[in-house]
Design a protein that fits this description.
Blueprint: H1 12-37, H2 48-67, H3 80-83, E1 127-132, E2 141-147, E3 156-161, E4 172-177, E5 185-190, E6 229-230, H4 261-265, E7 273-278, E8 289-293, H5 301-312, E9 314-315
Antiparallel strand pairs: 1-5, 2-3, 3-4, 4-5, 6-9, 7-8
Helix pairs in contact: 1-2
This protein binds a DNA duplex (14 and 14 nucleotides) through residues 111, 113-114, 116, 118-121, 142-150, 156, 158, 160, 162, 174, 248, 251.
Main location: nucleus
GO molecular function: DNA-binding transcription factor activity; sequence-specific DNA binding
Biased composition (Basic residues): 110-124
DNA sequence: AAAATTTGACCGAT
DNA sequence: ATCGGTCAAATTTT
C-alpha cells in the first residue's frame, strides 16, 4: 500500500509549476466570468473559446504534475520536465544506436518455436502522458495487449494505431487507470501519428455526452476554487463504468472526442455568439443563463466539444470564484 | 465474413 | 528469475 508516495516528494520546483498553472487557470476563469457577465462589452479580450482552452490546459498541466510520480533514479533535477505534458522529446539521452531494425541486421535471431522476429524497442520516440477522464482521443486504436503491472491495482492496456499496416503509422499508447483517481486514466503516448486523419465526425453530433470528461469534478472539495460548470444532460450509458468488481474493462468506453492539448495549441478563436437567456427554464437553478454558440468551426475535431459547450453549457452565477 | 478484443506465450532488458 | 512490452491464436463483436 504505497499510496501517496509523492506526498513526501513534492519538490519546490513542482509546487512552483503547479501554482503557476493554477493561477493561470484562475485568471482565465476570471476573464471568462467577466466576458459572460458583459457579453456586449467590446473590450479587447480573448474569446471565450480561448479562455476555456486556457483553463483546460492549466488544470490539466497542474494535475499532470501532481499526479506523475517522477522519481527518476539518476536525476535529481528530473522533476518538472518529465512531468509536463508535451515536454516534447523524450528526455532520456538515448543515443539509440543499433536499436532500429536496420536491414540486414536481422541476425538470424529467431526463436525456433515462436518464429517471431525481434521486437523493436522504441526509445527516443516522442512520449508524453495525459491524465483524463476519458480514454478516447479521436484516433483509431487497436488494442494489442493487456498486462497486470507490479504494485498497480489496475492493469495496463496497450494500443497501436489502427493504421499501422495500411499507413505505416507507428504511434502507440498505454492506458492505465489512475491509482489515486480511479475515475481517470493515465495515458502515455509513444510517437506521433503519421496516418491521415479520418473525418469521422460527419454525422449528427447531437449527442452531447462527455462534458464531464474535461474536468475533474471536485464535489466535496471546499477550498478549491474550481468553476462549476454544470454539464448538459448526460446519457448514463456512456458514463464510465464504476468498478464495483474487477478492473478489466478498459476498452469499454467509446466516448466522445476529448480535446487534445496539441489541438488547443493551434487554436484560433473565431467569434462565438454569447446570448443571455435570462432567467432559467428547466433544469438549473441559475438565475442568469447564457448560451454561447459557434457554428463556424464544426469541422474541427475539438470543436465538437466546444459546440457542446456552446450550445448547452450553463453557467451558474455565483459559483465562479 | 471481417474486424476487434482477449489472453497466454514469447521476447528483451534488468 | 522477474518484469513489462509484444505477438498471435482463439474468441467475441460487428
Amino acid at each position: 500500500m504505497n499510496f501517496f508516495p509523492e506526498s513526501e516528494s513534492v519538490s519546490a520546483q513542482k509546487k512552483r509549476v503547479i501554482l503557476k498553472e493554477l493561477v493561470k487557470g484562475r485568471e482565465a476563469a476570471t476573464q471568462l466570468k467577466f466576458l459572460l457577465q458583459n457579453p456586449f462589452r467590446s473590450e479587447p479580450s480573448l474569446s471565450s473559446h480561448e479562455l476555456m482552452a486556457n483553463m483546460f490546459t492549466s488544470f490539466t498541466n497542474a494535475l499532470s504534475v501532481i499526479n506523475t510520480s517522477s522519481v527518476e533514479p539518476g536525476s535529481a533535477d528530473g522533476v518538472a520536465h518529465r512531468d509536463l505534458l508535451f515536454s516534447g522529446v523524450n528526455l532520456s539521452p538515448v543515443p539509440d544506436s543499433g536499436n532500429h531494425p536496420s536491414p540486414g541486421d536481422c541476425s538470424g535471431k529467431r526463436s525456433q518455436k515462436g518464429g517471431r522476429g525481434r521486437y523493436n524497442r522504441r526509445r527516443s520516440e516522442k512520449t508524453w502522458t495525459e491524465l483524463s477522464c476519458t480514454t478516447d482521443d479521436n484516433h483509431a486504436w487497436r488494442k494489442y495487449g493487456q498486462k497486470g503491472i507490479l504494485n498497480s491495482e489496475f492493469p495496463r492496456s496497450y494500443f497501436r494505431c489502427s493504421h499501422k499496416y495500411d499507413q505505416g503509422c507507428r504511434a502507440t499508447k498505454q492506458v492505465q487507470q489512475d491509482e489515486e483517481y480511479p475515475e481517470m486514466y493515465r495515458t502515455t503516448y509513444f510517437g506521433i501519428h503519421i496516418c491521415k486523419a479520418t473525418p469521422k465526425i460527419t454525422h449528427s453530433a447531437t449527442d452531447s455526452s462527455t462534458w464531464e470528461s474535461y474536468f475533474l469534478n471536485s464535489d466535496h472539495d471546499s477550498n478549491v476554487q474550481v468553476p462549476l460548470i454544470t454539464p448538459p444532460i448526460l446519457t448514463t450509458d456512456q458514463e464510465f463504468p464504476k468498478e464495483t468488481h474487477t478492473s478489466s474493462d478498459l476498452t469499454d468506453h467509446k466516448l466522445l472526442d476529448p480535446i487534445l492539448l496539441s489541438d488547443l495549441k493551434d487554436f484560433e478563436p473565431s467569434n462565438p455568439t454569447i446570448v443571455p437567456l435570462g432567467k432559467e427554464s428547466d433544469n438549473t437553478t441559475a438565475d442568469n443563463v447564457y448560451s454561447c454558440t459557434d457554428s463556424q468551426r464544426l469541422d474541427m475535431d475539438f470543436e465538437v466539444a466546444f459546440v457542446h459547450f456552446g450550445t448547452d453549457f450553463h453557467f451558474e452565477e455565483g459559483q465562479l470564484l
